[in-house]
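**Paired protein data**
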Amino acid sequence: MAFNWKKGKKGEGEMSFLEHLEELRWHIIRSVLAILILMIGAFVFKNFIFDKIILAPKEPDFFTNRILCRLSEILNTSILCINSKPFNLINIKMAGQLTTHIAVSMVAGLILAFPVIIWEFWKFFKPALLENEKQHARGAVLAASLLFFTGVLFGYYLLAPLSVHFLTSYEISSDVTNQINIRSYIGTLSSICLATGLIFELPILAFFLTKIGIITPSFLKKYRKHAILIIVILAAIITPPDVFSQALVCIPLLFLYEVGIIISKRVMKQNEKRREEFMNEGSSGPE
């Protein structure tokens, strides 16, 4: 991608490399400020963040837990009823609760500021695009934000309760009692939500990688079997080792992969159309 972005402050030609770095620096600063502001907000609303969001998936009255327990009653089985017995979390360090409060506020600030971060980087790269490319990429920030939050909610409402139930109820011996550390619990919860949020960006990734010529629809189709294997391995990493949880992750990821192929096809068609228009303009020029 050529650096033919924005003119300099004096309007004298293209921006220099140092001017690009200065421009990028301000976009990064604004992104960091957004994270800090939202982090402070999350720090202030501690009770809501912890009681209503962070600690909710382990409680029996959590939405997913109630739905699965009702389904378990209908099917006359106890397999699906998860987190029916609440458990307490422990803190083993003197400053543990304070550092946990700060860490959770940082993660919450990062998640909430994601649209701002995407918007700032979009403003940085936008001048490098052609006018028709800007039109095709219109709505990319909104789409990326919606996909990210959909992934976070998917991880929070589906994967997190299943993971909490499996990891807290698993035992190697009845003589060993599980006493779950608060940092371990939050680390598992946040890693699941962030991982699924980023994984749900696959269609956006397919769009830009096709746009710059790294992948093609034929490439994605050719390596579909390899992608399925990677998705299964990835699902096994971020979920408990049971078929039900892994299927919950694999199915939407496979769907997103197929959506990525469709998006890649559309981008390739647009590129070919522009190439043909360019060639026709060249051939119809003055002799």
